[in-house]
Amino acid sequence: MKKEIHPPYAMAKVSCACGNTFVTRSTQDEIHTDICSNCHPFFTGKQKLVDTAGRVERFRQKYGTGKES
To answer: 63 φ, ψ to 5°?
Structure first.
């Protein structure tokens, strides 16, 4: 590998939207994520809709499959 062309690889703090934080190594100082192993349905076993950019809401409006009273 060529010397002095790679970015520094140091400790980085990862923050999740659920409030969980942990430390890992990366070329970035801080990493912000929407979902982590503490809140992901695969690891928790709980069903949860992950709405990215309002896709779930747009689907419900288009096809009328939402919470109906």
So the answer is: -105, 0
Matching residue, tokens 């990862």: 14
Note the pLDDT tens digit of each residue in 52-68.
666 777 777 888 765 55
Give yes or no for a contact between 34 and 49, defined as CB atoms under 8 angstroms apart: no
Give the up-direction half-sphere exposure of residue 3: CA atoms within 13 A in the CB hemisphere.
0
pTM strictly above 0.70: no
The correct CATH number of 10-63 out of 3.40.1190.20, 4.10.80.400, 3.90.190.10, 2.60.40.10 is: 4.10.80.400
